[in-house]
Amino acid sequence: MKIQSLLVLIVLLALTQCTTQDSSQKQSVKFAISFTHELSDQAQDGRLLLMLSNNTKAEPRNQIVDGPSTQLVFGVDVENMKPGDKIIVDATAFGYPLQSLSDVPAGEYYVQALLNRYETFNLKTGHTVKLPPDQGEGQQWNSKPGNFYNTPVKISVDPSKAETINVVMDMKIPPVTEPKDTKYIRHIKIQSKKLTEFWGRPMYLGAHVLVPEGFDDHPEARYPLMIYHGHFPSDFGGFSETPPDPNMDTTDYIGRFNIYGYNKIQAQEAYNFYKQWTSKNFPRFLVVEIQHPTPYYDDSYAVNSASQGPYGDAIMYELLPEIEKQFRGIGQGWARFTYGGSTGGWEALAVQMFYPDAFNGCFAACPDPIDFRAYCLVDIYKDKNAYWYESDFKKTERPSYRNYLGQITATLREMNYRELALGTKGRSGQQWDIWEAVYSPQGEDGYPKRLWDKVTGEIDHSVAEYWKENYDLRYILERDWATLGPKLEGKIHIYCGDMDNYYLNNAVYLMEEFLKKTKNPFYGGEVDYGDRAEHCWNGDHENPNYISRLRYNTMYLPKILKRIEKNAPKGADLKSWKY
């Protein structure tokens, strides 16, 4: 028995030693990342990202995505990083889709580092925060002017070897070129007093304005105004005065729509819109796309919030009056409309609700969650964990992205882990983080409070209650219908595909359920669904989504014109803009 016990002890010790050695070896590979004096002689704060890719389809910085094709990223926060300093990125750095460098399989990779540079903001609230300001690119970390990076270098990685791989960032992303005015597309930019006061530094709002045919020839005309909400527009899109080249390449493939030649389709649609816009009988009005990126995202969501400041009021009371002054807008609620899809769909409905007299109708396509009982697939009020379905014995992850056949390519946990690798404290610049930046109360550190723990998915229901009272659009409508209802009668139009990729249709069902029960008054609007339609279906039953998504600026016009005729006050200008 003693010999047997001794043998068992020897085996256990050997196994323990092997396990210890394996764990140590798996954590041995490191990267030492620095930047050159030529980039800057100043110390830097920011998020330092190390990316590895096993292919040459694009630079690694452009291959960090939610789907199966994603490559690897690992991130660490840095403060006071000086030129020449070597920051170590090792197995402790949080990564996506692998959480640690120790999990990276041995092999050949292209390595690239990037520093998403932060600046210090001294907020009106008394907090000091460090965030990446927009640099004209629309808050995209991988293309942000001024960010440091290096040309990808091919290396061999073997996690079992104790080695340190040096990566030197010696390049800087160049500035964005500002768009120029044309006959039909004009640009405006103002410094916002409200936002400047909140952020403690000059903050700006901008817009691209599509002016009607004959705008310069009819100085007496005053025009209705349509706000097309959406993500950050570099310029007014979907409008071209020239047709596509007949010999334009059509080999480009869009997997989302399963078609080739989409670039040419878009170019043709843009030219068709120009011809329609300038035709004799087309209504004359202004179409506006707003630029309102924040240090958290490419778009503020057009409402006031604790962590981002008064973007809603800044847009409505500073930018909009200036647009209507410069471009001769009628400037009254009966002559303003708003529409958009996804983020823009949520914004269209939200601004119609929060500024009910300022608009005569909203057309919200595939809106971001408008009822937080269906925050995609999470009920933030009842569920305990966002990442996992509740079960005593089975652990099932919540999906987050599907196609029209229900095939899942990303889970909620995976999407949030990508964000956490890109930035802590809500600074990833991505979707789940911006929802917290908009909807959450401000934390003691000045950053948005987490709705759930980013690692475990455990939900903070005190934060959920704050969301409910301030940004749950269905709940707010139901709570305040006695006062809001009379102001919103006939103004709410919502459209969504019943196979929305992000399950956004679930919240629309709940909103529709409430709206159909409204009384005194009945809501009098429209909720419609596209059969097997994905994100972002917008109400067109005649054309495929890849076409209808390019026609926002014309598809709602018949309904808009009817609203104008019905709601214009006595003596309103219904003639000067009809020429």
Short structural summary:
The chain is α+β, with helices and mostly antiparallel strands and 579 residues long. Helix content is 26%, strand content 22%. The protein folds into 3 domains: 26-172, Immunoglobulin-like (Sandwich), CATH 2.60.40; 185-371 and 472-567, 3-Layer(aba) Sandwich (Rossmann fold), CATH 3.40.50; 375-469, no CATH class.
**Helical run tally:** 14
Return the CATH topology of the largest domain. Rossmann fold
Question: How much strand?
Answer: 15-25%
CATH class of the largest domain: Alpha Beta
Helical amount among residues, as a percent range?
25-40%
Write up what this structure looks like.
- This protein has 579 residues and is α+β, with helices and mostly antiparallel strands.
- The protein has helices at residues 2-26, 193-199, 262-277, 311-326, 343-354, 412-422, 431-439, 461-471, 473-479, 481-488, 505-515, 545-548, 552-555, 557-567, and strands at residues 30-35, 44-53, 72-81, 87-89, 94-96, 107-122, 128-131, 148-149, 153-157, 164-169, 171-172, 185-191, 204-210, 225-229, 253-254, 259-260, 286-291, 304-305, 309-310, 336-341, 362-365, 399-402, 408-411, 492-497, 526-530.
- Strands 2, 3, 5, 6, 7, 8, 9 and 11 form an 8-stranded antiparallel β-sheet that branches.
- Helix 9 packs across helix 10 (481-488).
- 41% of the residues are buried.
- Residues 1-25 have low confidence and may be disordered.
